[in-house]
Design brief:
Rossmann fold, 2 domains, 10 helices, 5-stranded mixed β-sheet
Length: about 300
C-alpha cells in the first residue's frame, strides 16, 4: 500500500533542512496493523503527515499514487458546537462529491456503514460538544472509514483515554485490518496494547532510523529496551521489578490466574517467591477461593499479607 525509498523527513528552518528521519525504506501492507512507536518529539507525527502527502519529504520517494487512497486521523479536537456526529462522519465523503455537494445513495450507505462499524449508532444526532474523548475518537475513526480508503493513518488515537476505550479502539483497528484488508498505521505510546495487537512495529531510534519487526522479536532482541531505556520495568517478563525488602522467602504452590495474582501481591509487598522455603502458601483449587498458610485457610489475599507480616 505504501513503500518508501530512501525517504528523509523533517522540516526547513532558517534555510536549512532539519532531518528527523533519514533514508527510510519502509513498507505498509494491506491487512496489517502497524504500530509506530518512539520517544516524544522524535518525529512520528511528521512522518505520518509526510506519508499522507500533507508535508513534502526532504529527500527520497513515497510510492503511493494519491493522498485520496489515505484517510488520516489526527489528534486535533474539532470545536464546532453545532455539528453532530453524523455531520462529522459525512465529511468523509467530501472527496467524492461534485460542486453540488449532494450525497448519493452510495454516500449515505457508506456513512451508515462506517457508523455501524464503530458501533456509535446511538450518537448519530449528538452534538460533538457533548461527546467524551473516547466517543470523539470513535467518531473520527468513523469519518475515516466513510472515506473508504485502503489506508488508514492515525496519530495517537488512544491518547488521554481510559483503559476500556483504549482496548476497544485498538481491537477495532485490528479487526478492520484483518476483516477489511486495510493497511493501518498507528502512532502510539501504548506499549502494552501494541505488543498484544500489532502485526508489526515501526520503532523510531535515536540515529534517525526506524527499526521494523514483529513485537516479540523487538522485545527479545532488546530493541525496545534500547529505545525506551526502561527504569524498573522488565519488558521480557512484562512486570515491574520489585525489591524483596522484607527478607522473607515464600514457597507458592498453585496454578492459573489465582497463582499469578498471588505472586504479584507477594512480590509487590516485598516478599521473595522461591522454589523452596519453610513458609508455604497453597492456592486453593475449589470453586471458592482460599489460601492455606500453616494449615489455616484464609479467604482474601489481604489477610494472607497480614498473616505473613506478623
Amino acid at each position: 500500500m505504501i513503500i518508501t525509498r530512501n525517504l528523509s523527513v523533517g522540516y526547513h528552518s532558517k534555510n536549512k533542512k532539519q532531518f528527523l528521519f533519514e533514508d527510510l525504506n519502509l513498507q505498509l501492507n494491506a491487512g496489517q496493523l502497524v504500530c509506530f512507536m518512539g520517544p516524544n518529539g522524535i518525529g512520528k507525527s511528521t512522518l505520518l503527515r509526510t506519508l499522507a502527502h500533507l508535508q513534502n519529504p526532504l529527500a527520497g520517494e513515497i510510492e503511493n499514487k494519491s493522498g485520496k487512497n489515505i484517510a488520516l486521523v489526527l489528534t486535533d479536537r474539532i470545536s464546532s458546537s453545532n455539528m453532530t456526529v453524523y455531520d462529522l462522519v459525512m465529511y468523509g465523503r467530501y472527496p467524492y462529491l461534485d460542486w453540488n455537494i449532494d450525497l448519493t445513495e452510495k454516500d449515505k450507505q457508506q456513512i451508515d456503514q462506517a457508523i455501524d462499524q464503530v458501533r456509535i449508532e446511538a450518537l448519530k444526532e449528538k452534538p460533538l460538544s457533548e461527546l467524551s474523548d473516547g466517543q470523539m475518537q470513535m467518531a473520527m475513526i468513523a469519518r475515516a472509514l466513510a472515506q473508504d480508503t485502503p489506508i488508514l493513518l492515525l496519530d495517537e488515537p488512544t491518547a488521554h483515554l481510559d483503559l476500556n476505550n483504549r482496548v476497544e479502539i485498538m481491537n477495532l483497528l485490528r479487526s478492520l485490518s484483518r476483516n477489511m484488508g486495510k493497511a493501518i498505521l498507528v502512532t502510539t505510546h501504548e506499549l502494552d496494547l501494541a505488543l498484544q495487537t500489532a502485526d508489526f512495529v515501526w520503532l523510531a531510534t535515536s540515529n534517525k532510523k526506524i527499526k521494523t519487526g514483529i513485537p516479540e522479536d523487538l522485545v527479545l532482541d532488546g530493541s525496545f529496551d534500547e529505545v525506551f531505556k526502561f527504569k524498573g520495568f522488565n519488558l521480557k517478563t512484562g512486570r515491574v521489578e520489585h525489591e524483596a525488602h522484607r527478607g522473607i522467602a515464600v514457597q507458592l504452590i498453585g496454578e492459573g490466574f489465582t497463582y499469578l495474582w498471588t505472586k504479584n501481591a507477594l512480590e509487590r509487598c516485598g516478599f521473595e517467591v522461591a522454589q523452596k522455603s519453610e513458609v508455604v502458601i497453597k492456592v486453593g483449587s475449589s470453586q471458592k477461593l482460599y489460601w492455606e498458610v500453616a494449615g489455616e485457610k484464609i479467604s482474601t489475599l489481604a489477610e494472607v499479607l497480614i498473616h505473613l507480616s506478623k
